[in-house]
Amino acid sequence: MSPLLEKLGVLGAALGTLCCIGIPAIVAAISAIGLGFIIRDAVLRQLTLASLAIGYAGMFLSWRQHRSPGPLLLYVGSGALVYTCVFVWFSRFGAYLGLIGMLTGAVWSALARRACPLPSHAEVEPAAETDGPQMNSDPET
């Protein structure tokens, strides 16, 4: 579930950021499919915050699996940079840098999760089977 949350978070934050920056192709595509109301800053601010929250949740769940704090810290810092550069102090370069950082954090987290060792079957002891009275298979008794 966490890889899906990470991807949705990055995708939503990227969409909100690119709309706020005013990339013509993104704005035109959104208007063409009838979602022109999304282009307003009030809606985009909420969309970006929701996307960042979803991405943060996915990164936190991934961190619980691989316990490497680097991807989580990069993603959180980059998400804060994106929000700040779009809605507080407008900086196109900072917004792009934040998106690149979020994408890098998500990829780094996926690689860390893939490298995380899983318990082998030899380490897990099988449960004892007690499905009823045990018959003694010793023929001498």
Supply the key terms.
5 helices; single chain; mainly alpha; 141 residues; 0% strand; elongated
What topology does this entry show?
Blueprint lengths: L1 H20 L2 H9 L8 H26 L2 H20 L3 H24 L26
Helix pairs in contact: 1-3, 1-4, 1-5, 3-4, 3-5, 4-5
Describe the structure.
The chain is mainly alpha-helical. The protein has one domain. 70% of the residues lie in helices and 0% in strands. The chain has five helices and no strands. Helix 1 (2-21) packs antiparallel against helix 5 and helix 3 (41-66) runs antiparallel to helix 4 (69-88). The protein starts with a helix and ends in a 26-residue tail after the last helix.
What do the pLDDT scores average to? 82
Largest sheet: none
Tell me the fraction of residues in β-strands, as a range: under 5%
What's the quaternary structure here?
A: single chain
Order of helices and strands: HHHHH
- Number of helices, where a helix is a run of at least 4 consecutive DSSP H or I residues: 5
- Terminal Cα span: 56 Å
The radius of gyration is 24 Å
Structural class: mainly alpha
Number of extended strands: 0
Could you say which overall geometry the principal axes of the C-alpha atoms support? elongated
Unreliable runs, pLDDT <50, ≥5 residues? 120-124
Number of domains: 1
Question: Can you give the helix content as a percent range?
Answer: over 70%
